[in-house]
Amino acid sequence: MRISTRGLHEIPSLEKQKSEDLYIGSLDPLQSDDRLTRVPAFNKERDVMALVMTLQDMLPAVQEVTTFDYPQACAAMRDIGILLGSIKRHGVEPVHVVPSLEDRLNLLGEVTNLPPRDTLIHYVRWNPEGSRLRTYTGTEDEHQLIKSVQVAFHPLYEAILSLHDLYHVSLDSSEFSTLCDQVISQFEGMVHGVVNAKRNVSPQYFAEELRFYFDPIQLNGREYLGPGAVEMPVFLFDHILWSCDVEDETYTAFKKAYVPYNQAMVRDLYAAYEQRPSLVSKAVQELSNGDDFCETRLESAKSLVRLFNLLKSFRAPHKKLADKAYEHAAKDNYREKGSGGYEPGVLHYILQLNLNALQNLKARIQVYERK
Ligand code: HEM
């Protein structure tokens, strides 16, 4: 049965999303282009006072925020976000030193239909290129971290939309393998992202410096997570492919923690697949149905295995990267949790669940081959 998209937010085409991203990147509604170039030096000098004054200078009045349209509000949140992460990096809660933040952030969150703070989308997709790039540290490592996520973001989005289409195709159709190969080539962007991070981001620098800019901040009496790569909707890809019907409290809580940090279309798709069999469960069911043997069905199932292997090609090296970074963190007695509030052990846990689902599919294929 086709997953209903009635009542869901519009799913924008990739082209539309890319041009909107570029447009938001080009905006400077708080006139912060110059001001933000000084942030890396303030962070290096741990000059919290200068960071707070910069934030106060650029913070728009409530009246001004109400005049912002959607793209302006996204760009304004992106720029305020650089100061939020910077101030928090030095152990200070931004809202404690600038109480008027709460009103403005809540308003910006409403206009953008996103949380009342910056997300990975602000930091990566809406961050302008070149000399206007917003960073906390201005270092090559941070540039490369942003680039690593940038090369992966749109391909992941494309892969999710194609996977959503694939969900509705039967294993008996030759279209299944073709579409599956399309998802595979789109998801490769995630692998490229991790390869770039592995080559160009020092795990030690990440562990000792960069990750602290992505710490949660207090607002409205609760915590809001910072713009770490963990917010990428890989959890939605998993959800559709193999995990929407996996009853695992830890992983379900993990996925649900990041849903709100994504745009409406991701949130809608996540909800639409809850209470559904995953694509893999559907495939296993199709392989178990009837006594007949169909070559196309077998080929389709094997292409699903290739897709799983690619997911592993993202997860296994990414886990190694995270383990290496946190080795440094442990040596220096830093706290062990990642920006998403999870310990790196969660990566092993997810990878294991991922492999279990793959194993289940492979076992079913073996039985089918003997038919
Ligand atoms: C030095 C580089 C990196 C390190 C040390 C690192 C570390 C981590 C850690 C510790 C987590 C666990 C959750 C948490 O943060 O609380 C995590 C999750 C995650 N990270 Fe990274 N990461 C790095 C780069 C990247 C890049 C470049 C991408 C994407 C292209 C990425 C995508 C993800 C995703 C999607 C998750 C969620 C878990 C999963 O789906 O397996 N990370 N990362």
Account of the protein in words:
With 371 residues, this protein is mostly helical. The protein has 2 domains: 15-138, Methane Monooxygenase Hydroxylase, Chain G, domain 1 (Up-down Bundle), CATH 1.20.58; 140-214 and 230-371, Methane Monooxygenase Hydroxylase, Chain G, domain 1, CATH 1.20.58. The chain is 65% helix and 2% strand. It contains 18 helices and 2 strands. A two-stranded antiparallel ribbon has the order 1-2. A hairpin with a 2-residue loop joins strand 1 (217-219) and strand 2. The chain is elongated. The mean pLDDT is 93. It holds the Pfam family PrnB. GO terms for molecular function: heme binding; metal ion binding.
How many separate structural domains? Answer: 2
Could you tell me the strand content as a percent range? under 5%
What is the makeup of the main sheet?
2 strands, antiparallel
**Large-scale geometry:** elongated
Please give the radius of gyration in angstroms.
Answer: 22 Å
Low-confidence stretches: none
Strand order of the largest sheet: 1-2
Query: Using DSSP, what is the number of strands?
Result: 2
- The pLDDT mean sits at 93
* Name of the CATH architecture of the largest domain: Up-down Bundle
Count of helical regions:
18
Q: Which CATH class of the largest domain?
A: Mainly Alpha
What is the structural class?
Answer: mainly alpha
List each distinct ligand once.
protoporphyrin IX containing FE
Q: Give the terminus-to-terminus CA distance.
A: 27 Å
Return the CATH topology of the largest domain.
Methane Monooxygenase Hydroxylase, Chain G, domain 1
Order of helices and strands: HHHHHHHHHHHHEEHHHHHH
Percent of residues in helices: 55-70%
